[in-house]
User: Fold these one by one.
Assistant:
Number 1:
Amino acid sequence: MTDTATVAARLRDSIDLLAKVPPSLVQLVLRFGLAGIFWSSGRTKVEGLLTISESTYFLFEEEYRLPLVSPHLAAQLGTYAEHLFPILLVLGLATRLSALALFGMTLVIQIFVYPDAFLATHLGWFALALAIATGGPGKISLDYQFFRRR
């Protein structure tokens, strides 16, 4: 077999192997990936378990400056959402709702906070959230366990 034929055969074998990955495992990895991004961000905004830090309030007052919402309320909503929705995603509970909520948060961040970060950061977050929202949680989830009979 020629080198080109060998490489092509190995590539074909690798693709065949990827086709055998269970979709539920893919959905689980997607959920953990999106959850990890927001959980990590949320943890930088608190001290201890869930005490919002003064620096977080400062960020929302001086850097983030969201319209229509007070900085104090925005800091609380954003910080708690960055904790709640990742937990729900990891558990696979209210999965589509959680993914849509994080999609919405990403949209707000993209439009009002970091508009230059679309290609470098936010496009990936949008893609993860959309894949989860449209594909569902998969079989490795509480949603599946609770609602599989319907």
Number 2:
Amino acid sequence: MDRLWTPWRYAYITGKQPGGRPGVPADLEAFPHDHGSVFLNLIGAVQWAAASGGVPQVVAERAGGVLLQAEHNFICLNAFPYTSGHVMVVPYARLDSLAKLPAPAAMEMMALAQQMETAIREVYRPDGVNLGMNLGEAAGAGVAEHLHLHILPRWFGDSNFMTATAETRVLPEPLPVTWERLRVALGQPTS
């Protein structure tokens, strides 16, 4: 009998997060503020840990799954990805509509999406790349109050009965490995 181990999925399956985001050290878990958005809490914790002097910025970014911080947006790994290489471009502004996103942030978001498409194609060699937003709960948004752009690689024949019959995804690569590979492809430091 074959066994498939996906321990990083435990928090999602059970709805519990005993250690928080996979690989997040206590320095980020101790972030003392709640900004009312999972994304703002994530980037706030990363920036807080780096600014506090106790954690180098690259260590904080690794712990939070942050691949790149730009002026108006940041790129992070999806903590519960559809497939390995699933990332999100997230504006720092907490907005629930693309129409509300200021033009400079929207332009930067698209430029970052272009960078990520290139990095994903380089690292994963997919047959295609999905980009998309779910705006509003009825559209499938898991975080409806804060828009974000999903970017993920796709391959022909990448269908798996586990998703359809067991509502479970099988991911071949742990998040820390994904972070490392994509950071290198983006030209960002990894240590």
